[in-house]
Amino acid sequence: MTTPLLYKRVLLKVSGEGLAGKNDILDKKALARMAKEMQSLIQQGVELCVVVGGGNIVRGRSCADMERCVADAMGMHATIINAFALKSALQAAHVPACVYSAVPMGAEGQLFQRQQALESLKRGEVVIFAGGTGLPYFSTDTASVLRARQMRCDAFLKATQVDGIYTADVRKNPKAKRYAKVSYDEVIAKQLGVMDLTAVVLAKEGKLPVVVFKQSQPSALKNIVRGQGVFTLMNEKGK
Question: Domain with 172 in it: what CATH number?
Answer without folding.
Answer: 3.40.1160.10
